[in-house]
Amino acid sequence: MRVNKRREGGGEEVKVITPTAEMMSCHCLTLQATGEEDPEVEEKEEEENNRPGLHPQSVACHRTQDPTSMAESSASVAEAEVSFKKFAVHGDTKATGKEMNGKNFAKLCKDCRVIDGKNVTATDVDIVFTKVKAKTARIITFEQFNQALVELAPKRFRGKDQQEALPLLYGLIAGKGPANVGVTKVAKAAAVDRLTDATKYTGSHKERFDESGKGKGKAGREELPDTSGYVGAYKGQGSYDDKVKEA
Asked: What is the C-alpha separation between 2 and 42, in angstroms, rounded?
């Protein structure tokens, strides 16, 4: 215990007693032994609980979870699912977009820069794909795709834990689609436009295509007669009335 002296406005000398650290520790030990609680601590807890608009449970939830980050994370997952469907149907007209093969998974990781050649390589992607898929399957679902991203996130972003790295990895994939590198595009030059536009054809060539530009096949090259009939020897079904009128 320390005693400090100070003078008030009237000139009187007043003693101020300041408790030392040893006294405070003894006070805490006494409270623990008797089972009592410090009244100052109780007063602070009561003030915290009585704050308007904040319940103790809501305060705890607010400290553990950030609503903004949760919303951004869920939005990234939804956008990543859209990208998953785009890559899942790439190169396969029969694909439904619900499942993805290993080739398209590797393309997704390459086009979205999940593969950086340093932390994550194509071999790492193949290993993770084999790990998350079923034993006899050759495809993965979106749930298994998320498991693969959980495996790749700490590798792609070294020095960050899984909770920090996973949203960053979703950010790389969200809103992306397959890159058509090396694909031959239709020429739109004026010199070849009249050669590729079927609506500008003339003569017999014009008859070989329909209005949409699709070829008619043999029917566009030859005039095929109607050889249908009631029996094998009779040809020209439905032409009897026309012949009678002509006679």
From this structure: 27
pTM of the shown model: 0.48
How many domains would you assign to the chain?
3
Instruction: State residue 55 phi and psi, 5-degree precision.
Output: -90, 150
Written as one string, the DSSP assignment of 117-162 is: SSSS-HHHHHHHHHHHS-SS-SEEEHHHHHHHHHHHHHHHSTTS-H
pLDDT tens-digit profile of 133-142?
A: 999 999 999 9
Question: Which stretch of DSSP H or E encloses residue 15?
Answer: strand 13-18
Q: What is the CATH number of the domain that holds 79?
A: 1.10.238.10
Cα four-point dihedral sign 58, 64, 69, 71: negative
Residue 88 shares a structural domain with residue 162: yes
Q: Do 80 and 160 have their domain in common? A: yes
Its domain, for residue 7, covers: 1-40
